[in-house]
Amino acid sequence: MKRSHSSRRTSADRNSARPAGRTRREFLALTAAACAGPVLSRLAAAQSPARVVVVGGGFAGATCARFLRRADARLDVTLVEPNATFTACPFSNDVVAGLRDIRDQRFGYQALGAEGIRVVQVAATGVDPPGRQVQLAGGGTLPYDRLVLAPGIDFRWGAIPGYDEAAAEKMPHAWKAGEQTLLLRRQLEAMPDGGLVVMAVPANPYRCPPGPYERASLIAYYLKTHKPRSKVLVLDAKDTFSKQRLFTDAWAQLYPGLLEWVSLSQGGKVISVDPGTNTVSTDFEQYRAAVANVIPPQRAGRIAELAGVADRTGWCPINPVTFESQLQPNIHVIGDAAIAGAMPKSAFAANAQAKVCAAAVAALLRGAAPADPVLVNTCYSLVAPDYGISVAGVYRPKGGQLTDVEGAGGTSPPQAPPQTRALEARYAEAWFRTITHEVFG
Amino acid sequence: MRWRTALALTGGLVLATGPLLAGAPAPSADPQVLASGCTGCHTSSDTLTTAIPKIRGLPEAAIAAALRAFRAGQRPTTVMDRIARGFTDEEIAQLAAYFSRQK
Prior knowledge:
The complex is a heterodimer of chains A (about 450) and B (about 100).
Chain A: H1 2-17, H2 24-35, H3 37-47, E1 51-55, H4 59-71, E2 76-80, E3 85-87, H5 92-96, E4 106-108, H6 110-114, E5 118-120, E6 124-128, E7 133-136, E8 141-143, E9 146-149, E10 153-155, H7 179-190, E11 196-201, H8 211-226, E12 231-236, H9 244-254, E13 259-262, E14 270-274, E15 279-282, E16 286-288, E17 291-294, E18 298-300, H10 302-306, E19 316-317, E20 331-333, E21 338-339, H11 347-365, E22 375-384, E23 387-398, E24 401-404, E25 410-411, H12 418-440
Parallel strand pairs in A: 1-2, 1-9, 2-5, 9-20, 11-12, 11-17, 12-13, 19-21
Antiparallel strand pairs in A: 3-4, 6-7, 7-8, 10-18, 14-15, 15-16, 22-23, 23-24, 23-25
Helix pairs in contact in A: 1-2, 4-11, 4-12
Chain B: H1 2-17, H2 31-36, H3 60-71, H4 80-84, H5 89-101
């Protein structure tokens, strides 16, 4: 893989170097640098600590920064994150439903700083892969031996005609936690009883596959307990979804008449929205919503495209052992931005990938071969405050992808006593406390 | 032309071997990396207590027996059966040894 990058780089250099008037010696030096990456970084490590820059301070990036230092305390680790606090998405549907305070979703980077990680509170605006530098807002640069990109998602504004950044102020996506979460909460609170809540759900892949259905469930819970003549309508761009049977069984039991799911084949795909009238349109119907929650199609965070690690899908192909980009050497991509095969785009997966990536980066920087990893994911969803369900998976690299270990994983059983659902709801909360403590505590 | 074909083939081969450096066999899993899949739920913190039991510092034999029983569907659980089925005997032994040594 490394070799193929190098040969690609070499021919690109050959094309671009000549017109730029580079001398033969400069050209050779460039070629050598492209071929001898690991050797050079090992030499550098012998003289001064290897420099790893991590861009993005969410579950993936913050975990990776911490575990890099744990893998090798000599590493010079810098975390680039423009926000002073992180607002977590898992459990933000509880905030939407009025069951949780947004302050319980917020985490700072003090513990990372105390462990010797340099936290740079500024946006990364570009990456120069041949020069191995990250460009920062305000003009600074950060050199790296290896770069880890954990940029999460960006929205494809305009993919749904009428839905742009301005429209999101009227019809919140609430798919990045924070002000958007609070906006959706306020709209639900202000809605009179009898109102129609419309949710637009995208096709795969997107952040948190079961998330829209957990949100629909918890909104239905809020309506049932506070505004029982209201209804939540889920307009979906697909026919199947994560934990579908568990959700639909629970909806029939808990929220009859309060929650309706319209699949793609039933005409559920949203084709346009009008924020002026709060109208959501499919091929067959126009819905005037009291509250419209539009979750738009997504892609990897912008810096991935700027660094040249995103492919035509908008996501980032990676090596499943090291999470190194398949498109740019010395750049690793973890979390929602990565194409991680069978692994879903979840906080659990981001955290698991970050630990594997940190160990692999530390190994590569000392010239060792990274071990084949085994990765785990467990995603809990709440259908009601005391009703939890889960999907789990175990993944190994196979054929250049992370694939499901056959026979492992799967969802909670379809038939289970209330005690089991209550226990999974407790475990969901326990997981959130554990993971946020591991990442930020 | 022939060169180009050869280069394309080489590129394809290198890509197909994927992560493995020059075809070397993958080293067996690092126990710490293996265990990192567990600590997302089972905290390794001294100060945190949650509904999910801690496993660090438990006797090695107990951890291994529990994982094997989960895997065989012989021990009641919500999710551990689904997870344990993804691990081999050797990995279960590695995990048990690793967590039992964490104090």
